[in-house]
Amino acid sequence: MFVGAVFFPLLGATISGFFGRWIGSRAAQWSSVGCMVLAAVCGALAFAEVAMDSRPATVGLGTWIDVGGFELAWALRYDTLAAVMVAMVTLISTLIHLYSVGYMSHDATPPRFFAYLSLFTFMMLMLVTADNLAQLFFGWEGVGLASYLLIGYWYDRDSANAAAMKAFIVNRVGDFFFMLGVALVFLTFDSIDFSEIFAAVPQHTGDTFLGLNSIELIGVLLFLGACGKSAQLGLHTWLPDAMEGPTPVSALIHAATMVTAGVFLVCRMSPLMEFAPNALTLVTFVGASTALFAATIGCVQNDIKRIIAYSTCSQLGYMFFAAGVGAYQVAMFHLFTHAFFKALLFLGAGSVIHAMSDEQDIRRMGGIWSKIPVTYAVMWIGSLALAGIPFFAGYYSKDAILEAAFAAHSLVGGYAFICGILAAFLTAFYSWRLLILTFHGEPRADEHTMGHIHESPVVMLAPLLLLAVGAVLAGYLFYDFFVGEHEHAFWAGSIVNAAHNHIMHDMHEVPAWVPLAPTVVAVLGIALAYFLYMVAPGLPARLAAAVPALYRFLLNKWYFDELYDRIFVGPARRLAAVFWKIGDVRIIDGMPNGAASLAAGASRGAVRIQTGRVANYAFAMIIGLVFFVSLFMLGLR
Amino acid sequence: MSWTLALPEIVLAVAGLAILAGGVLPKRDTFFPASMAVVGALLLTAVLVIGQEEGTAFGGQYVSDSFSSFMKLLTILGGALGLLLALDWNEKEGLGRFEFSVLVLYATLGGMVMVSANDLMTTYLGLELLSLPLYVVAAFNRDDARSSEAGLKYFVLGALASGLLLYGASLIYGFAGSTNFDRLAEALSAGQQASPGLVVGIVFVIAALAFKVSAVPFHMWTPDVYEGAPTPVTAFFAMAPKVAAIALLARVLLGPFGDVAAQWQQIMLLVSMGSMVLGAFAAIGQRNIKRLMAYSSIGHVGYALMGVAVASDEGLRGLLVYMAIYILMNVGTFAVIVAMRRGGRAVEQVDDLAGLGRTDPGTAMWMAVFMFSMAGIPPLAGFFGKLYVFLAAVQGGFWVLATVGVLTSVVSAYYYLRIVKVMYFDQGVGALDRAPASLSVVMAGTGLFNLLFILWPAPILAAAGAAAAALLA
Questions:
Q1: What ipTM was estimated for this complex?
Q2: How far is A592 from chain B (nearest CA, A)?
Q3: Which range marks the domain in which residue B188 is found?
Q4: CB under 8 Å, gap of 24 or more: what pairs does A169-174 form?
């Protein structure tokens, strides 16, 4: 069961990837879906046993590295934290596999797509069940690779290739810090095994490295690594571009799995992070800033998937600042509920795009709600959950996060609270902007597209409906376990709050207005969106014209891409050109080319001696003899 | 002292006479049975060599030790395999005369005598016994101008080399008072400084033997003779005489003249380096594969002589291993060259191999194995041959020699790999004829040796180590 949950996806990927050509496209698709279903069943059973019955386990798979006293094992570490992730990832991934059967039906090479998708799932599961940092890094790089393959799945499009490379390279920047962090962990603790690290943290709180506190430094480095994966401010630029991949990929990578790896890492390292207060402050600050920053951009984007992508970025910011104030459980809770409604929104958007003949610009949509009612309904549910409207999943987790931020009673906690409230307002605003522009108002698409609009097939709708159920109920059902009264028994030590950290208690004792605030601002956001786009549809354009600088600043995503282009990409290209033209062409190529022409010349010379005349040959022999004799005689003197 | 010590040579000589007599009598063509009889005689001789006792005979003129056994086995192997290559070829070219096999037998016998020589007189005897049949087989295709020319050139220059040997031998006798290697060794270890006359004599002897192994600058005959002689003869040239002459060179230099090594070492260094460099560069421009193999063999001799030049235990062992491996990759390569026929006519241009990778994948694969092995690419046998001599050079502190060796083997890799490229990537003009079974067997056997040497190198290494120890003891 434990092994199955992780390795069934690998089996599916193998079948679909290596044998897809022989068994045919349909068989390949359904076999990988079948493997995912088995994995999801295993994942659910594992969740029930580990998290609900509090029976954590570690399954050894064998030795990986054994050099000079340094030993690493392949092992699956199933504690509550891992079990939550495994159950969530396998479930969401299964639904997305199923949805893809419909979505990719017009594609040329579905087996390749399903192989990548299953491989990605496997890598993510390896990441979350890792027993040591090296194995986690294996999964970490694995999801990076799989996301590269998936984003660039339509490799004949230039933009997809560019986006895939961008995602990979930006992730590498984060990975670099992650590797430094792992190295420092090994230097400090002499081990990268989780249990050994966590047990040894208290003895090493005073250690320093280059004059800095080691634990703090590890915390910062690992967080910077997490920033890359989880698209936090500074390293977020790849995420919106990654929308070049097929929509199910966006749903899988940018909702349920890959981007949450960073949050997972911070929570996984909670026993260590607890002793790094400054690193946690940084986490809170970056997370809160990202939450607000991404929300502002989301308000003016026009591509339906990009809006949702920025919303993901923003929600990840929420998770980080929750972890930053010490409420890792709350961060995990939001991660869990977010997976449902964000996957729902992405797949719903996919359904809209499918219906609109691959149109993604919401300015060319509108007035289609009656033609695709099911999609319309699930998008409503997803948006309500995202905005945090009471009793939908997002309400429980987002409220808990803001309460935790308020209860932190620190400067940065207050900053996070304010950013969070503002972001909640913007979230509601852009969600309804999206809903209204997409489904209501006058149809702005051409006749041809409008004539083709159709509801998606059952194989796509079924996952949507299941996810909708999750988006409604996930918060209500699991609140008590994740952050409520059973919290302590549920997590069973897989997340550690240090003795000085009372946040899980304090967050329930905040003033009465705090839990209400997010709901109020969300409703205000909805109202504003309704007013601007429903009642007075001409107003947004005039607003944009009134403050053109601000509008362009937001539309161009705070000019992050341009800035990076100027600072990193341009100089790197110029340097590369120098190396190429002088270093490679002149020096590196020049040396062998020169040597080769020298050799050819020497060869011609050597052949010329060979005249074919016996007299010459005899002469050469005698000359050689004379030469040697004289050499010998001179050597004797 | 007992004449029975030389039993292998005596048996082989008598067998040769018997085959000669048996071949003359019947009216019909007896090439095949005679060849089989020669191969049988060689096998019998090999068995006798393995069982040979150690010691000296004929008043110290003949010596038998593990070094001579090792080299004799290689010589016999070269002779037998050379004859096997000729079986099919000679029939097809109308050269199926039984004298050929008897000549090969006597050349091999001459080589064995050289290997066992312990006296300058025996040396000369063996050398001439080896050379005379070689002159004849080089010109064996007497209706072909190129073959006749090759035989004549070889004869004229070979006579010159023999003259040098005799002149050197008489100088040595005159200044040292003996022709026996053991006496010479005593005389040289007793005297503090070798006299100039003796030194000149040594140089003359070295020159004559360098001619036989075609080392620079006594190599000039090699490309012309290799190209002109019938292909199986070329293969034979590249094996048995080389082994015998290198064995003799090693015995002379490291035995009686071992104590004056400092003086001849420099010459051997130059010979070795010159051979490596010439073998690498001159072969680049060659289009005829036999000519190319001539330069290749010059290069290989250069590597082998590194082992003599460093004048150490490891060097000698490296030399012996190198020769064993060289024989086996060379015979495989020549098996492919002998098999090169299109429409019944022998072809010998490198470009004739074009497209072989598609038309005859088996042969092409073995050829690729041999080429990679010759280029010294691991894990094939050729790599280990080079490894041991380079190792000896480095251990002896001969950095320049080792560096030149490594660099020239890079250059020579070019033309070996070019053959592979031609076989697999060039467009062929037409398929070559199927290789006869006898050649395929030789290719497969030697190819497997080259592939699998890495797994069981121990027997050859051990035998070479014992042989080297026997000579230097």
A1: 0.85
A2: 11
A3: 2-472
A4: A170/A228, A170/A235, A170/A237, A170/A238, A171/A144, A171/A147, A171/A228, A171/A229, A171/A238, A172/A144, A172/A228, A173/A228, A173/A235, A174/A224, A174/A225, A174/A226, A174/A227, A174/A228, A174/A229, A174/A235
